[in-house]
Amino acid sequence: MELTVFSPRVFDSTDMPADAAVLDALGHQVSGVDLAAPPVVLPDFHHKSKMELPSSVAVATAGTVRPTLTSASVNCGMALISLDLGERPSTAAVDTFVRRIKDRYPYPPTKKRELTLSEVRRAAVDGAAFAAERWSVPAEELERIEEGGRLDLERYGGAARLLKEMPAIAFQLARMRFGTVGPSNHFVELQQVEEIYDEPAAALLGLRHGQITIQYHGGGGVLTGEVGALFGPRKHNPRNLRLAAAVQKPLYHLATSRSMAELKRRYALYFSHACPPLDLDSTEGRRLMLANAAAMNYGFAFRLATYSYLKQVARDVFGGADGRLVVDSPHNSMYEEPLPAEFGEGRTAVVHRHNSCRAYPAELMPEGTVFGVTGQALLLPGTNRTSSYVALPGDDVADSLHSACHGAGTVISDFERRGLSTQHPQGHVTRRYRYSDAAPAEVAHLDDHGVNAAVAILTDNKLVRPVARLRPFAVLN
Q1: Cα–Cα distance between 350 and 134 in angstroms, integer?
Q2: Are 43 and 457 in contact (CB under 8 A)?
Q3: Is the predicted pLDDT of residue 443 greater than 90, yes or no?
Q4: CATH of domain 9-476
Q5: Average pLDDT for residues 28-37, to the nearest whole number?
Q6: Could you give the CA distance from residue 161 to residue 336 in angstroms, rounded to a whole number?
């Protein structure tokens, strides 16, 4: 097949030029790939040492699925909860809120089994619908989750094939650590809405000026990491996953082979030193997409379980009515999606997003839903020292393969390092809690120059339009 060569479509600015060395690394990674459109480079573009592909990118392939073009664990994502509160809770109440989260989701996590074996399987098949039933989340809230919180398994072989081929040990291990958040770049953050830019859209999303919100960043859970390790070695390959894969890979790939030829083919594909691309329409390609869909479903259920607990604790500690989900959006994913019309009417591709979120306009969302009117809501977080934004897709979002960056953390750090950002003139602080027993610290805010520069690139290119700006006042990370 003759490959089309596309240069990356880079969204940057004079103050925030895309790093030339990282662009070169991206070019090497997608060289010789069956690109269906130009790779997209978004603000906050950087390369983590344990990842094959730089962050803040979207890559569409025409006939293959390539796991290394996203994270080794899909469905890491962020969500936002709007609370029925118009003023900040007391420090004592925030202390209690955080203590209850740490008690429920301790770090290091325990080996307690959170789910039965049957429930893990249901999570993999039914996704967020399982979690909504299990933790009494109103069914209408599922419309605020990307893909409704469930990918259809039937198009890739069905639930029966998944449950037959996936090793039982994978489901057993996935009973643990369900719904956890943990430290690092994952967090639970209390915020207040400081500005509204589009009152009608904000009202539809459930946001108003002065309101208290909870934003959280969580992974996809144990099963997503296990699935990531099944299809070849990855740079991010911690010891626990290596040990699990040593048992699971032979059971999943070799023990289920239906012929000697298939066994040899799978051994060559999955037991080498590479993580190979697979033809999407091949048996192995559909099998990979089946496992990916199951991992995504488990991840949706995982974060909805966290949502249920966070809003319960907020109600118990802060008072008011139940919180509502504004949006839940993954930023590591592989989806079959329609391509923008400029690349051919009616064409589809596998869109791999690595630390970038999907930004579907209203016409691509289900009719009769809020997102069918507004488009899919987007979270554009800063850090716990700056504002964050809620946005909607802009008029030209197809130019970025319907993608936006999932944050601006490295931009903010770079602006501070270069002296382009200093402490906020109004002296805002965030009360920062850690998973240790250390007392919380008051962390001074920076000005918003860094996060605003990232958002400006998106808005100037009409990829997104801001709806609200939120300021953090407490965080657990």
Answers
A1: 32
A2: yes
A3: yes
A4: 3.90.1860.10
A5: 95
A6: 20
pLDDT in tens, 399-419: 999 999 999 999 999 999 999
Rg (CA), the chain: 22
Query: What is the rounded distance in angstroms from the CA atom of residue 79 to the CA atom of residue 186?
Result: 11
CA torsion, points 270, 274, 279, 280, in degrees to nearest 10? Answer: 80
CA atoms of 405 and 355, how far apart (whole Å): 7
CB atoms within 10 A of CB 263: 15
Instruction: State how beta strands 55-61 and 40-46 pair.
Output: antiparallel
> What are the tens digits of pLDDT across the range 325-368?
999 999 999 999 999 999 999 999 999 999 999 999 999 999 99
What whole-number distance in Å separates Cα of residue 300 and Cα of residue 302?
A: 5
pLDDT at 1 over 60: no
Other beta carbons less than 10 A from residue 355's beta carbon? 24
- Other beta carbons within 10 angstroms of residue 48's beta carbon come to 15
Could you please report the per-residue DSSP string of 388-433?
A: EEEEEE-TTGGGGTSEEES--HHHHHHHHHTTS--B-TT--EEEEE
Report how many helices (DSSP H) and strands (DSSP E) the chain contains, helices first: 14, 18
Per-domain residue ranges of the chain: 9-476
